[in-house]
Design brief:
Distance between the termini: 26 Å
CATH architecture: 3-Layer(aba) Sandwich
Shape: globular
CATH topology: Rossmann fold
Helix content: 25-40%
Largest sheet: 6 strands, parallel
Number of strands: 8
CATH superfamily: NAD(P)-binding Rossmann-like Domain
Structural class: alpha/beta
């Protein structure tokens, strides 16, 4: 992956949702070419127009999940857990040889503030198993509040824990993390550790409600 954002195309599948569209907005503002993927290509195009109006530039395009994944150099999956498996199946061939950043958190509505561990232990572990060794899965961005991402001209006070069995892929995703002002990438180990990272999200959602805040985040102390 080139360090120069002009040469990288990112697809965000689920980019019409709050978290996904926030990441789209931030990366487009940082100079990346970004594609919004959706099961409804027209909905994706409408969201792209809305976000381009915020940016004042035509930096974002919307299309189907499959087309976005096929065109992209790097794919980000930010969808409800209920849609996770089906969308991965639909783009399996398109993501071979690419990094797939899985933002998905296993939640069971309406109990979204209680930790749920799925059969595969973590959404990202299930993604790797479904996609096979041809895809380079990185778990990241699960603990970032969507409300903070929606304001492209303000920094985000949050560390991003990254888990993967591919050290090079983590290094490349770290560039995306640190393209968003205020964020710091933290290597949190192998993909198996994503079980703990994903489980932090319902804890943060509980904290949000308990203390009436919009988006509690995390900081790892003791790092230089």
């Amino acid at each position: 992956m080139s360090k120069d954002p002009k040469f990288l195309t990112i697809a965000v599948l689920g980019g019409t949702g709050k978290e996904g569209s926030g990441l789209v907005l931030r990366w487009a503002h940082s100079g990346y070419r970004v594609l919004i993927g959706s099961r409804d290509a027209e909905r994706a195009a409408a969201k792209a127009s809305e976000l381009n109006a915020v940016l004042g530039a035509e930096a974002i395009q919307g299309t189907s999940n499959e087309e976005a994944a096929a065109q992209a150099d790097l794919v980000v999956l930010s969808v409800p857990y209920s849609a996770h498996g089906a969308i991965l199946e639909s783009v399996r061939d398109c993501v071979q040889g690419k990094i797939l950043v899985d933002v998905t958190v296993p939640l069971q509505p309406p109990n979204v503030r209680t930790v749920y561990v799925p059969e595969g232990k973590a959404a990202s572990l299930e993604a790797q198993a479904l996609l096979g060794d041809g895809a380079r899965v990185v778990a990241a961005f699960q603990n970032v509040g969507a409300a903070h991402l929606q304001e492209p001209f303000h920094g985000v006070d949050c560390d991003v824990l990254m888990c993967s069995d591919d050290a090079e892929a983590k290094g490349e995703v770290a560039q995306l993390v640190e393209a968003i002002p205020g964020m710091r990438a933290v290597d949190a180990g192998p993909l198996a550790n994503a079980v703990a990272v994903e489980a932090l999200t319902p804890v943060l959602l509980y904290i949000n409600r308990r203390y009436k805040v919009a988006g509690a985040g995390i900081r790892i102390t003791g790092l230089e």
